[in-house]
Design goal:
Blueprint: H1 15-25, H2 27-45, H3 52-77, H4 84-90, H5 93-115, H6 118-134, H7 138-141, H8 146-168, H9 173-197, H10 201-224, E1 234-241, E2 243-247, E3 250-255, E4 269-272, E5 277-285, E6 291-302, E7 306-318, E8 325-332, E9 337-344, E10 350-360, E11 370-375, E12 379-381
Parallel strand pairs: 4-10
Antiparallel strand pairs: 1-5, 2-3, 3-11, 5-8, 6-7, 6-9, 7-12, 9-10
Helix pairs in contact: 2-5, 3-5, 3-8, 3-9, 5-6, 5-8, 8-9, 8-10, 9-10
Length: about 375
């Protein structure tokens, strides 16, 4: 088997030329790899939602992503090449954009998932994850920057949606609309310059304006329907107990679940005796120095009328440390049947919920209660 001789006039292959050839052969694979790399990088580095360094990092990423999108569209609309000094680095601009979007959306997906409660909120998180996957499909990549502008729009609003409450120290409805306004303002600047650079208003509308502002409209709709999770608040622990006591350095929790059921940290079925109090203990992540109100809402399932609200308790809470805050609420002698407890933010969105059952305890001997401990140094007061 013979081989063709190498062309003696061709220059020797260098490391850079080999890397460039590999990049040309595996363009889509590399884009996916950089996107997943951004995910993994942020999954390792991500800590608290209110870390100043993380907030600055994400702000820089958003500025760089916006600049890369704008420059790439300017080059396309004006049918020009980047200047000579930028041509070699610009070959990797798309990978840098994918890496940063992957990093940002990974962080927001994690925070949304932590704050999501109920089927509708989980669907919200799934929608964000689906957009991540769609961005890597060849069919959607052929649409140009449509998906990229949609993802960038999600990142902008998500960033401001938790940056403003972190700075303010509480959570109010106007903050979300301010986040949408801030994100829309930055997107308007992008669209304004795209219109100045290009002659086709239809092209700018289809590839940038509609996906970007469409996402903002969707955010407003989801918030109005109370589907958008209440970031930056997130449930870290919630459970039903027979007794909750504040002790030095945290909380002492007593449950009737057998010790061998080590995977259960609370009572799924509350066995009730006369005079019993049913306690709900909840620990919520919140930014440092966060001071706001929450509501503990109890629902009972009536076989004829469905779920009906039985009681609502408003609490003022304060996160005085890095742990967040913890609090408890109780019902006296709840009727047997199916129950649900929901923890709501000040603006009426569900932070977390738990379903459980109340049944009559047929025994009359001493109870075998298991003691657990939840560390918390934060304050919670009625």
């Amino acid at each position: 088997m013979s081989t063709l001789p190498e062309n003696p006039d061709s220059p020797p292959a260098t490391l850079f030329s080999r890397l460039h050839a590999f990049k040309s052969r595996n363009e889509r694979l590399l884009s996916t790899a950089f996107f997943l790399g951004g995910f993994l990088f942020d999954a390792i580095m991500l800590s608290r939602i209110d870390e100043p360094l993380m907030l600055v990092q994400q702000g820089v990423y958003l500025l760089v992503c916006g600049a890369l999108l704008a420059i790439s569209q300017r080059l396309e609309l004006k049918k020009t090449e980047p200047p000579a000094w930028l041509r070699k680095p610009w070959q990797y601009a798309d990978h840098l954009l994918h890496f940063m979007l992957g990093t940002l959306l990974n962080a927001y997906s994690i925070f949304y998932f932590q704050s999501a409660s109920g089927l509708t909120a989980v669907c919200f998180v799934i929608t964000v994850a689906a957009l991540l996957a769609l961005n890597e499909l060849p069919r959607f990549q052929r649409l140009g920057p449509v998906v990229l502008y949609a993802l960038y729009s999600i990142c902008l609003t998500s960033y401001f949606a938790y940056l403003i409450p972190v700075i303010s120290g509480d959570l109010r409805p106007w903050m979300f609309y301010l986040a949408v306004t801030a994100a829309s303002g930055l997107l308007f600047v992008q669209v304004y310059y795209l219109l100045r650079w290009g002659k086709s208003y239809l092209h700018v509308a289809r590839h940038a304006a509609i996906p970007a502002f469409g996402v903002q409209a969707l955010f407003v709709l989801l918030y109005t329907l109370r589907i958008a999770p209440p970031v930056p608040l997130a449930i870290k622990q919630i459970g039903i107990y027979h007794q909750v006591k504040r002790v030095q350095g945290g909380w002492e929790l007593l449950q009737q679940t057998k010790t061998w059921r080590f995977w259960r940290r609370a009572d799924a079925v509350f066995l009730e005796r006369p005079g019993d109090k049913l306690f709900c203990f909840v620990r919520i992540f919140a930014p440092r120095h966060f001071h706001d109100g929450i509501s503990v809402v109890w629902f009972h399932h009536d076989p004829r009328h469905g779920w009906t609200q039985a009681h609502r308790l408003a609490l003022t809470v304060s996160a005085s440390s890095a742990v967040g805050f913890a609090t408890d609420a109780y019902l006296t002698e709840p009727m047997p049947g199916e129950w649900r407890v929901e923890i709501e933010s000040q603006d009426g969105r569900t932070i977390g919920q738990l379903r459980f059952e109340v049944a009559l305890d047929q025994g009359d001997g001493p109870r075998d209660l298991t003691q657990t401990f939840s560390a918390s140094q934060s304050l919670a007061k009625d």
